[in-house]
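Structure ticket #2291
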Amino acid sequence: MDRRALLGLKSTVVKTSDPGAPASTQSFTRLPTVTANVRRSNGRPGVMTVETGVDAPDAAVRTRVTQSAPRLRAAYATVVQQFAARTLPGTPPDIEGLIAQLQATTNQTLGRQGARVLIGTVMVL
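Resolution: structure written out below.
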């Protein structure tokens, strides 16, 4: 087992193109799951988890995403924590609003456009 992946210190790259294509065409970078504290409808504390990743088809932007992965993780954690704090207990989270905030944060962190935020699962437990 790779301990860096378990601790969220290693990002994984997943191929999104032809399986026989060279490794230079990998455009999706998966980032670790982001968590934040929320209040559930019964008043007890809960946890919101958001799976994130960045798709960057352009090679220069892809390199920038790879180099900025720690900054992106920190920025995403801040956005999700603030979003979870604004979410009312017992109401479903506004996923479109969360995606818009994450995309704006991505563009600001990278200093350019061209990378697209993709989220997998948003859970409130």
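Closing remark: DSSP finds four helices and four strands in the chain.
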